[in-house]
Amino acid sequence: MNTYLVPESLAVSDSGFLFLASTGETFTLNEIGKDIFKMLQGGDTREAIEQKILELYDVERATFVRDFDDFINQLSSFKLIRTK
Amino acid sequence: MAEKKTYERPVVTKHQSGIMNKFGSGPSTSVRDNIDGVLIKDLAGKFGSPLFVLSEKTIRQNQRNAYRVFKNRYPRVQFAWSYKTNYLDAVCSVFHQEGSWAEVVSEFEYRKARALGIPGEHIIFNGPEKSIEALRTAIREGAMIHIDHFDELYHIVELTDTETLKARVAIRVNMDVGVYPLWDRFGFNYENGEAWQAIKRIVANPRLSLIGLHTHIGTYMMSAEAYRVAASKLAGLAKSMHDEFSITLDYIDVGGGFASQNTLIGQYLPAEEVVPSLEQYADAIASGLFQLSIKPEDLPTLILETGRALIDNAGYLITTVIANKRLSTGRRAIIVDAGVNLMFTSFWYKHKVQPAQQPSVHTEDAVIYGPLCMNIDVLRDGIVLPTLKQGDRLVLNHVGAYNMTQWMQFITMRPNVVMVMEDGTVELIRKAETLEYLAQQEVLPARLKEKKSR
Ligand SMILES: Cc1ncc(COP(=O)(O)O)c(C=O)c1O
What we know:
The complex is a heterodimer of chains A (about 80) and B (about 450). Chain A is α+β, with helices and mostly antiparallel strands. Helix content of chain A is about 45%, strand content about 20%. Chain A has one domain: Orthogonal Bundle (Arc Repressor Mutant, subunit A), CATH 1.10.10. Chain A has helices at about 30-40, 45-55, 60-75, and strands at about 5, 10, 15-20, 25-30, 55-60, 80-84. Chain A starts with a strand and ends with a strand. Chain B folds into 2 domains: about 25-55 and about 315-435, Beta Barrel (Lyase, Ornithine Decarboxylase, Chain A, domain 1), CATH 2.40.37; about 55-310, TIM Barrel (Alpha-Beta Barrel), CATH 3.20.20.10. In chain B, the strands form 4 sheets. In chain B, strands 5, 16, 17, 19, 20, 21, 22, 23 and 24 form a 9-stranded mixed beta sheet that branches. Chain B has an 8-stranded parallel β-barrel with strand order 6-7-8-9-10-12-13-15, surrounded by 7 helices. The longest helix of chain B is centred in the middle third of the chain and has 21 residues, at about 225-245. Chains A and B meet through β4, α1, β5 and α3 of A and β1 and β2 of B. The complex binds pyridoxal-5'-phosphate.
């Protein structure tokens, strides 16, 4: 099972604005990015997130799995999450 | 069950502190889903991807507009299409239908113009390499031969002597116009008196008629003032010829070199804000020429060999996304199916790239790579684009000049080129290359056909 760690100093606004207090960096998430990020913060596993997104959005599993990996890579490269 | 939301890839974008986002962001990315009304998806569906597309309408508009702009400022104007800029037959033919002559820089280009039905007397033969055979033909056919160096002049003298022919010649003059580096490798220098020397030698030979003066001061010239200097220096020479030898020139040819609306790599402001308009170039040239103080009926024709400024914006490249990738820095990379072997101008220009389908609201800084397995294969760096999927199409704008002549068959083949005609139909004007086409030129020695060497 895959879960992720989100830094505590991170705040997300409803519009998808991210503020990393420890470094002062800011980011924007698109709508779906924000949905996923909230799930990550809530401690959802990868499998749970996949499930929820497929219910919410009109997308094939294969497409989403690939995009999710890329999203996780982006977040890790900005040090916004760590894989547990 | 509730309607599902439309999907797009999840993305996170880091804000660059301090720097203003010079590209603008978000939904401002414009979409180009058609070229002159023909859908990109239909073009690529029928003719494949990558695909070069030319707009007949734009070429004609460019040429008509340029003629009008110059004609409003100077009484006699003639354009000569610079073949090397784009010598596809269909492109040259549109320019010729609009009244342009041909400007060629090699024997091959010369023959191409002849094959398109252009008579010798409407061909300007430029360039440092003209073979004896090519010169012989050009002299016989009455072409305007623009002499580049003394060795060429001697060849022409020899040919006209042995064949008792008369040649119509001009000299190419290079000069200091305040723009560096100086293009002093072509033609005869103005400042050191070499050009005047050449003029005197030609005038002394009864078999040569010196009908014009030519210069081409460079390409993508950002200074209109440079053209005023060039035109006035040629006008000065013309005046001296008139005063000293009573020669009235048929024409003064100021070459090409006007910048197109493409932004150079390393140039911060977009081209539209820094590139002179055609009107500014024309004002400068006309003001330089009016120093001629020659009777109006004797004014030489102004010849223009404008290349890129007449064709760049008439050319598009449609390309398809092969993959999205993350670089080690987290930066987004997009791999597309057209490489720098087709897009020579990617080395100098930040081409405008537009998605062909409705973009997502979210944009991200990206680099666009071609499909070649080579590090130099960068089509466009530092561009903000919406998220794209495999199979999505992108359109590169302003690619009409030099790409369809300087492209090479390297790793991939050269693709189809089509022209969207004024009536909205689409014509294939150059067929994609095939393995068979390439194999035709190769010769495999018999001994290498054996499966294994002993
Ligand atoms: C002699 C000559 N004329 C015309 C041109 C066309 O130049 P441009 O495309 O910059 O207008 C060139 C290209 O460098 C050239 O060498």
